[in-house]
Specification:
Shape: globular
Number of strands: 21
Oligomer: single chain
Mean pLDDT: 84
Radius of gyration: 30 Å
Strand order of the largest sheet: 3-6-10-9-8-13-16
Strand content: 5-15%
Helix content: 25-40%
């Protein structure tokens, strides 16, 4: 079916053209076959990867419409009709996912796009893949219609991974299949041959041994060493190793098991794979060939950071096939149990060349490495990033020869890491700038306006009047702030060249958890907050980027909402309005109407403007308990509300995001005075506008000025203890968005 014939698929499903075309399509696919026969469903959810009956296809497409990849011709091959066997229906359903995924890959790549090139021969890696896909069409044994050789191997390895089977166990299962399969089967006769098929599919990874104290990786110069050159710890376990630990056989035949293993997934083969399919190769050029340029930002390609790369590196930007990547890292507990203190750190790469509807889809995420636990690597994460940095340097300096299935030619593929995406604690790990202490803000750096509270014993970050225009009346208002006028300019973020210049003032510390910690007096006299020299500056282009590390907006929203709701409801551990906060205001000589009053030898606290009575707290809890969200939009907030204690707990980060932007303005105006409700509503509107999928530069500039006023209004109302680093960071979010583009991609 040509592109002309598929235009009706993009029309409204209520038009006569769509209904006529859909009727003809169903007739051509199913014809007069029985109702039990199936074909690939082209709806937006199934995407030709699931086989459905005629009735199911009609229902799915009528409700969801045709998938865009199918409309663009990705499903040109004739559909495969599969007869249902009622006796084996349960078995087929169990294997649907892997079998249909492999079938889709074979039909899309082999039949539709890449085989039959007459212009230039593919490179070695492309030929290996195409040979494998040709083999994938072979039946597992004569007459087998359900699975092929490759799909069987993929399902076998899926069982191994999901159920934690060892290599010995898998080999015994393989021998059993070899005994029962009929003559003429094509199943590999050994586990090594099975592994070769998996490697050719690109599903393999490298096991790199690491020091148990995160000092070094045993690679390169340290590949043959048995002890860590930094801390002297042994590379091997004394006893108790298993086959899963990746044993190494010595010359004497003895097995030794490493104490810590980094699972590293090479980046270059997967970037090359994106261009071995014509449809995906075409999508990787979207940012250059099909991007709508109307002055609005909808994609990172519209951002100033992207345009800056184009102007600084014109040779790189001249070929739209060169890839721009984002790096995301965070820790999680793989066991899903709160009572188990274990943290594993995945590092994921995201290709930004793709269009918005595919850019952040999970099939295009690239797992780069899996950093083992049981504790966070912290500043030692640079040790584990070394293999990735080496590949990124190769992709920038030399490039790799890659087969382009669309143009039927080989080209030199290059890649650039645009920025990193992480929450605020991980920001410190990747950038090297500590996000704790007096210089916690990485944008204000040494000019951070900090104050150590005497009674609260914590740093607070005020001084938001610096971000107002010079002629703003609040700059001269002493009584409402800190009894001083404000004449300072807003701090300017450090450029890459300035960072490197500051790196020259200190030596790179040794990595590892066993290294000696700095003395406290050294921390007090420090004029910067650098804890290491970031490994990302090994990339030749890193110092020239406008945004190197992004602030996580949703993480900031979570902490801000916790501070607001904890203060309003007086939740223990979250409330910023405590006895110590009042004593700090008295010590600083501000807010005289909120100082503790000494009566009969006891201190009494006057009611705050934002204090809620029992009735108002119940109104707030009742409102949150009665909220009903669309399915999948947010969690069941009702379960997180405790009426007896007037508390809200157990929310997810996305729930905080929804409540702060959508729900807080609705209830704040009814339970709070206008002077308190107004800045909270403005804060909510700021985040709501900032997280929009479509942004305009003029609107972002308005947000940049409005957030400074909003934070100053909050300074007039809430105590200094309320302003931790998370309450300060919103003042930088608008400027970062102005440079980096829409928040949802960062």
């Amino acid at each position: 079916m040509s592109d002309e014939d598929r235009r009706w698929m993009r029309m409204s499903r209520f038009t006569s053209e769509w209904q006529t075309g859909f009727k003809n399509y169903i007739q051509s696919i199913f014809g007069g076959t029985s109702e039990e026969e199936t074909a690939p469903c082209p709806c937006t959810r199934c995407r030709c990867m699931s086989y459905r009956t005629q009735k199911e296809v009609r229902t799915h497409v009528a409700l969801r419409g045709f998938d865009e990849s199918f409309i663009q011709g990705e499903g040109n091959g004739p559909p495969l009709l599969v007869e249902k066997d009622n006796a084996d229906e349960g078995t087929r359903d169990h294997a649907d996912g892997s079998h249909e995924l492999i079938s889709s890959l074979i039909n899309g790549v082999v039949h539709g796009e890449v085989i039959g090139n007459d212009e230039e021969d593919p490179n070695g890696s492309a030929k290996k893949l195409y040979r494998l896909l040709e083999e994938a069409k072979k039946e597992l044994y004569p007459g087998c219609k359900e699975v092929t050789k490759v799909s069987f191997i993929v399902m076998l390895f899926q069982i191994k991974c999901m159920d934690g089977l060892s290599n010995n166990c898998l080999e015994r299962i393989l021998r059993l299949f070899l005994l029962v399969l009929p003559d003429g089967h094509c199943l590999p006769t050994s586990l090594d041959k099975v592994h070769k098929v998996v490697r050719d599919l690109g599903l393999d990874y490298q096991k790199i041994h690491a020091c148990v104290n995160d000092c070094v990786l045993f690679r390169g110069d340290y590949a043959e060493r048995d002890n860590c050159p930094t801390c002297g710890e042994s590379r091997w376990k004394e006893s108790g190793g298993t086959e899963k630990d990746g044993p190494v056989v010595t010359a004497g035949g003895q097995k030794r098991f490493p104490r810590k293993i980094l699972c590293y997934f090479p980046l270059i083969p997967r970037l090359q794979r994106l261009y071995m399919r014509a449809s995906t190769s075409s999508l990787m050029r979207w940012h250059k060939e099909e991007l709508v340029r109307d002055g609005k930002m909808r994609h990172p390609a519209d951002s100033l950071a992207w345009q800056h790369v184009n102007s600084e590196f014109k040779d790189f930007a001249s070929d739209p096939r060169n890839v721009r990547l984002g790096l995301a890292a965070d820790g999680f507990n793989p066991f899903g149990m709160l009572n188990v203190a274990y943290t594993t750190w995945p590092v994921i790469l995201i290709p930004y060349n793709l269009p918005p509807w595919l850019c952040l889809k999970q099939p295009f995420w690239m797992m780069s490495m899996l950093i083992p636990g049981s504790k966070s690597p912290r500043m030692n994460i640079d040790v584990y990033l070394q293999p990735l940095i080496d590949e990124l340097k190769e992709l920038w300096v030399q490039g790799v020869k890659t087969w382009d299935a669309k143009e039927k030619k080989n080209f030199t593929l290059r890649a650039l890491l645009l920025w990193t995406i992480n929450d605020f604690p991980a920001y410190a790990m990747l950038s090297g700038w500590s996000t704790k202490g007096k210089f916690a803000c990485p944008y204000c750096h040494k000019d951070t306006d900090y104050l150590l509270l005497k009674f609260g014993s914590k740093h607070c970050y005020l001084g938001h009047r610096r971000f107002l225009p010079q002629n703003h009346r609040w700059r001269r208002n002493k009584n409402s702030f800190n009894n001083k006028t404000e004449t300072r300019e807003a701090p300017v973020p450090l450029t890459g060249a300035q960072v490197i210049q500051q790196y020259e003032s200190f030596e790179q510390p040794k990595f590892g958890t066993a290294t000696k910690k700095r003395k406290q007096r050294e921390e007090d006299s420090r004029w910067h907050n650098w804890r290491k020299k970031s490994i990302f500056f090994d990339l030749p282009y890193w110092k020239k980027l406008l945004v190197r590390h992004n602030l996580d907006v949703m993480h900031i929203e979570k902490n801000i909402y916790e501070s607001i709701i904890g203060t309003l409801l007086g939740i223990d551990g979250k409330c910023k309005d405590s006895d110590k906060a009042w004593l700090d205001m008295q010590h600083l000589g501000i807010r005289h109407d909120q100082h503790p009053v000494l009566e009969n030898g006891q201190y009494t606290l006057p009611p705050s403007l934002y204090s809620l009575g029992k009735d108002e707290k119940i109104v707030l809890c009742t409102f949150l308990e009665g909220v009903r969200m669309p399915d999948g939009y947010a969690s069941n907030i009702k379960r997180c509300v405790d009426f007896d204690g007037c508390k809200v707990s157990g929310l997810k980060s996305h729930d905080y995001h929804v409540i702060l932007q959508k729900l807080l303005p609705l209830v704040a105006r009814h339970i709070l005075p206008e002077d308190v409700a107004r800045p909270l509503i403005e804060l909510s509107r700021f985040f709501n506008a900032l997280c929009s999928k479509e942004l305009v530069q003029s609107d972002i500039e308005k947000l940049s000025s409005s957030i400074a006023e909003t934070l100053c209004q909050l300074e007039m109302i809430f105590p200094p203890a309320f302003f931790d680093i998370m309450m300060h960071l919103p003042v930088h979010l608008a400027e970062e968005t102005k440079i980096g583009g829409p928040v949802c991609y960062r």
